Each structure stands twice: as C-alpha cells, then as structure tokens.
DNA sequence: TATTCATGTGGGAACGGTCCCACATCAACG
DNA sequence: CGTTGATGTGGGACCGTTCCCACATGAATA
C-alpha cells in the first residue's frame, strides 16, 4: 500500500540509488533531479520504511526500557513515571523511540523480548538479579541501569545518592530539635530504601541520638496504603513513645502515614513533623505540603538516555557510577520542636 | 553479532527453510531434525530477528500511541498515564509493543513519525484536529481515538460518558441539599470538560436550581495549581456567595481548590463540600478523600487496544462510539447540607 | 505395477531500503 | 592530447526472515 523507493524512482525516471541519495543527502545529486524527486515524494507522500532501513543499517533507533515492578502500573508510577518521561523526551531529541515493558519476575523474558526487537540499547530501571544482567551482558547490546542494585559488577548505572539523602533528612530533623523520630522503612531488599535508612540512622546517631530499634518499622511495600497501615499498626507504640517526627524512606509511605495522623487529629507539623523522600508530584499538593528529600528524577532519566546514546555510538563513557545529589525541599509538614 | 537463521541451519546441517519451519511450527518437520535444531537454538541463544520478520510479514507488531499534550509530561499524567498503562498491558497480552510520542502542536509530525516506523495501528489520545485525522485516514493504517474530540466524522472512538457523569455529579450534590454550587470548569476547548460542565449545568437546572452564571469560573488549564488559583481568585466572591459546594470538571482542579479551602480554615466537608471528576490516584489519598465521578480509565485503555487489534486483524467492529459509563465514588469531601 | 498421497526437505524470490562499485561526462591541467 | 578529478547516475549485492514451489521418499491404494 505504501510507496517504495523503487516506485518513486520509476516515476522520477531515475534509479532507486538516486532516490536514496536524495533522501539521505549522501553523495552527488544534480539540483534538477533532486527537485524532481522531492516533488514526487511530496506529491505521493512517500514515507521511507524504517523497518527496511533498520534491516540494512542494523540500527532500529529503538530503545528498550525494562522496569521491574511487582505491582503492574509502569507508566503512571509517581517516581518511575517521571524518569520514564524524561527518558522518552530525551530519546525523541536524539531520534530514538522507546519501547517499554514491565518485568514481573526478575526473569530474562523481558530482555529476550527486547533483544528480538533488536533495540539499539537497553535501560533497566529498578533492581535486577545478577543473572539477568549476566544474560544481557552476553549479548552485545549497550545497556545501563537506573536506580538499580549498584552492587552488580561492572555495570554503568545512574543513581541518586540515597545514603547522603538519608543523612540530610536526619540532619535536618535533628537540627529542628527532634529527638524521638519514628521511621518507616520501605522494603530493604530495595537498595534505595536500604541506603536511605542507613544514611538516616547513621546521621541520627552522629547527631548524638540514642539508637532506638523500636523507632524503625519495616514496610512490606512502599505504597500509600502501607504507609497508612504502618502508622495505624504502630499507633499505640507511637503515642506512648512521645515521638515528635516521622521519617519515611519515600513520599508515598510518608503521605500515607501523615494521612493517618491527620485523620486522628494529630496536628502536622505542630505536634508531629513528617518527612518523606523522592519529591513526587503530590508531595507538594498535599495539605500540609510534604517536606522531603527531592530526587532529580528528570535529570536522571535524561542523563541515562544521553549516556546510553554514547554507548550506542561507541563513544567513551568515563564514569561507571553516575550519581545525582538529592536536595532538601522544605515545606509545611515539618517544624521545629 | 547475533546469530542468523542461516547460521543455525548450517550448524544443524539443514536448510534455513527447515529452521524457519521449526521455529514457526508451520509445515512438516521430523522430530529428530526439530530436536537438533531446537538444541542448537538453545545453545547459541539464537533470537529471531523481529526486524527481518517484520520486513517480510509486513507486520511490526508495534502500535503507536500519540498523546496530545501542551505541557510535556506524557506518561506520568494521572489520567492519561492510567489509560496508557492499560494499553501497554493489554498490548503485551496481544503480542504488541507500544511506541509513545507526544504531539505538542496538533500537527501531523507525530503521525509521520509513526507511519515511517510502520506501526500496525495507531491510538490517538486526547483531541486532534480534523486535518490530522484526515491525514492519517489517507494512509491505510488502522487507528482509533481515546477520549478525543468525538465530533470528527467516522472515527472509531473510546470515550467516557462525560455528560452523564456531569449529571450524576449535579444530581448527587443537589440530593445532598446543596443549592449554591461553585463550579470550576476546565478548558472548554477540551470536549471532556465541556461535556462535564454541560451535563452538570443541565442537571442542576433540572433539579430546580436557578441558573447562576456567577457560579462558574473557567480555568485556563486543568492543573492543581490552576484549581488552587481559581479558588483563590474567586475567594471574595465565594465567601460572599454563601456557596456550600464546589464542583470541578476534574480531580486535579478539585484538589487544588480543596487545598485552598482547607488552608483557609474552611472545613471540608462540614462547611463546604468538594467534588471532582476522573478518580485519579491521589483523590483517595487526600485528606479528606475526594468524592468524584470515576472514569473507567483502565477499561478504556484495555478496550481501545482490543478494538484496535480487531481493526488490524480486519475483523468487523460494530460500533463506532465505544462508551463507558462513569460511576460515582462517594468519599469524605462531601456531606449533606 | 503404476498412481496417489502424506511426509519431509531444500532452493530461491521477495520484503524495501543502503551503499559499494562501475561507469559516463566534462573541465582543467601538464 | 592524454590524464586527472569532480560531478552525477545506475546496477546489484546484501540485511534476515517467510513462504511458495519443486522434489524426494516410502507406504497405501487402484
């Protein structure tokens, strides 16, 4: 149905080589021929076939993005969605398209799928098992990780400095005079949550606070409902413990916890300060707006795509770990004790 | 770098036709040969080249999704992101991949891009100009619209019954005894906002309420900040008007407005009820949780993909307008007067 | 015994581009 | 006047599949 370069050539009375040259701009073409060919292309609304082009050039200009998510939403995720947005936007400016898949079970299936599609590169978001990495490494496709498990060997990765962010949070809360801080920690199998908690706890001790194991509760997931539930379950303990602040290892958990508090007539921040991590969209929308450690989600996505492009173009990439510094965003959910 | 079917054939000592037959399962192959070939495929981790396959089969198994957005976020959008999620998920189960682009200027560029990529079908989300539709129609690619301008002729489209939803909202608020309702209407160039307002206003009159033009304020966009600002700008008027309820044509606007109210010590819902439309994720997370007219976002996305698949497979599609009924979700931001 | 048919395999064209190589023309130069 | 080089064009191999057609074999049937 679509026109081919051959048909264009025929109508212009030239060879397909010439048409190809006109389109690509490579090689010599006389102005008359070029004009004639372009006119016919315009008239017929000929669109070069990217599939055929990929066939010979061995480049699809497609990038595969694999996100590991237990729960299905990929794209509308408040954190990963932002990273993805930036990847898509940057990809467009570099003339790539993005194909997204979710990997449910840390298996190799999603990678297989992308490999068959012959993507030019692969971006792995969130954590992946070493065996998946090894599998991908075995094929010679450029790839990198975003916000992944950085303990995998020799993999270029883009990450937030989670540990430093945790420290910033502790330092800020302690600076406000809080001595009793209740912490809701997301799944420790997830490196981000682990490091945020680690940084927070260490800094908390560094500030001279007594390590109090009771003050940390571990969540099974990092959802809003889980944050709410964590607060609910620990409510008697919380009330008895005279805590004046809550720190959660991400905003969604923090917001859930905060909702529980507000619902139970605890005044935030007057009675209890609440602090999160990530700076997702609704952190600023909530009432009170949430103080948080903002992660450069857009910058991370953008950088990931730029570096991947370099890898694809075989340009040297200096650093293996591309780190982004989070920064404190002070809002209304925290106040001095 | 990747192995080809030819290499596999050579190693198995058979022709590439035979290997092709083993892989596809079409035609006769003896068990011995099949076993041998499969073993080599396994050993070498041969992955069929989807590009070459697309070349000959004239099917890429890729679907293009074009979303019209003035502001850039595509994917992390609380409403369209959900639709997209459902499309991606459903596409995967039908063996398609999704390529997403944003169209910034209602031009034909995004469509061109997809056409060059030879996508098997096209999903247009949000509104598009007639000329873009005409352009696409000119090529013989299956396509449909989701939540678009349904006034375009002869286009299969998936929509929410926005007008009915507007009526439901009015009926509900009036039923609670509210007589003075302040309405924040999103951009009327957007059919959804227009219809929601239309349904709401009509039903409001049908309930015997005096049409009061002062009670409607028109927003320039449909963001949280705009909702907040609308409330702020109309605050003197609002206070003077003794309004007891606010209806916004989407949740984001409603949430913004509600935040302003709460911030100014207006008790929601005791003094003022607030109601939105869409049922985005944070509607239920907010405090108080937002009463809204829930749109079947996931169902719409899923259905869109299923119907597009039918179009691609040349199966008959009966109805041109595929409508989804919204349903009231009663939460804590509304109460009887 | 000759014919038919199921089973199994290989050869090669086709898909729509890119790009190398061959070749033609013509001006400039030694 | 032959050589060189710039300019311009066409032929055809190639990318990695699919699938049609030809063909071979052996058992069953007329």
Automatic annotation (TrEMBL), chains A, B:
It comes from the Bacteria. The keyword Acetylation does not apply. This is LacI family transcriptional regulator. GO terms for molecular function: DNA-binding transcription factor activity; transcription cis-regulatory region binding. Keywords: DNA-binding, Transcription, Transcription regulation. PROSITE patterns: HTH_LACI_2. Residues 3-57 form the HTH lacI-type domain. The keyword Transcription regulation applies. InterPro entries: HTH_LacI (IPR000843), LacI/GalR-like_sensor (IPR046335), Lambda_DNA-bd_dom_sf (IPR010982), Peripla_BP_I (IPR028082).
